[in-house]
Amino acid sequence: MKLLRAASATALAVLLVSAGGCAKVIGLDDFSETDEEGDEPEALSCDLPGIANSCSTCLHTACRSECRTCDRNAACQAILECTGDCSNGDASCFSDCLDENPDGADAFLGLYADPSCAFTTCKLACLGRRGNLLEPCNLGEQCASGLCSGRVGGWCTAQCTTSADCGAGGVCIPLNGGPTVCFIGCGSNDDCYPGLMCQKEVVDIGGLEVSACAGVP
């Protein structure tokens, strides 16, 4: 947990320096459509001091479940207040705020750890850039390619003609009845984002058997 907090503190420092429907879900068999009902807006408090208005708006809408969890946790609110005294880029200060308020750490990291909602769903609003191939995402608009593999726990993908098109660690896999797209190559489940499994003996576009991260069948 200490390492996670340290890594998250570094990511938060970057976030503060940088800050100024339907979705396609890719499985190994096919594309499928998912819909998500929107909740009524509510007043929430989960903002890091100094984040951009666009980031705050995204957190309150697209990340409202995680925002609500922090809003209702007094220790998480204390972490937010503590970070107001940290200088931009001071990762050790952010880490100290977490250590001083351990009861709010999980709620805080659920929103601001990397990768979490602030760094996936709200990456464009909070960091000002779209994700590269195989980086985590929840919506296509978060990816430079415009295509995310799923609404929750996905990765930035793209149509491909060879595995080389997918960058280091990527494999190009033809979907039944659909396009040929980039998946994350893997050796074990540890190489995959949470919620994905390393599936063995997947046939890539070149006819080779590979291993690729994909949703649980």
How many DSSP helices? 7
Structural class: alpha+beta
User: How does the overall form come out from the CA principal axes?
Assistant: elongated
Q: SSE string, helix = H, strand = E?
A: HEEHHHHHHEEEEEEE
Summed up, the domain count is 2
Strand order of the largest sheet: 3-5-4
What is the first-to-last residue Cα distance?
30 Å
Helical content (DSSP H or I, runs of 4+) = 25-40%
What is the β-strand count?
A: 9
Main sheet summary: 3 strands, antiparallel
Average pLDDT figure: 78
Output the radius of gyration.
18 Å
Provide the low-confidence segments as ranges: 16-39
| Percentage of β-strand residues | 15-25%
Walk me through the topology.
Elements: H1 2-18, E1 22-26, E2 31-35, H2 53-61, H3 64-71, H4 74-83, H5 91-100, H6 105-112, H7 123-127, E3 136-137, E4 147-148, E5 154-157, E6 170-174, E7 180-184, E8 196-203, E9 209-215
Antiparallel strand pairs: 1-2, 3-5, 4-5, 6-7, 8-9
Please explain how this structure is put together.
The chain has 217 residues and is of the alpha+beta class. It folds into 2 domains: 2-22 and 37-127, no CATH class; 136-215, no CATH class. Helix content is 31%, strand content 20%. The protein has 7 helices and 9 strands; from the N terminus they run H-E-E-H-H-H-H-H-H-E-E-E-E-E-E-E. It has helices at 2-18, 53-61, 64-71, 74-83, 91-100, 105-112, 123-127; strands at residues 22-26, 31-35, 136-137, 147-148, 154-157, 170-174, 180-184, 196-203, 209-215. A 3-stranded antiparallel beta sheet has the order 3-5-4, with no helix packed on it. A hairpin with a 5-residue loop joins strand 8 (196-203) and strand 9. Helix 1 packs across helix 5 and helix 3 packs antiparallel against helix 6 (105-112). The longest helix is centred in the N-terminal third of the chain and has 17 residues, at 2-18. It is elongated, with a radius of gyration of 18 Å. It starts with a helix and ends with a strand. The model is unreliable at 16-39 (pLDDT under 50).
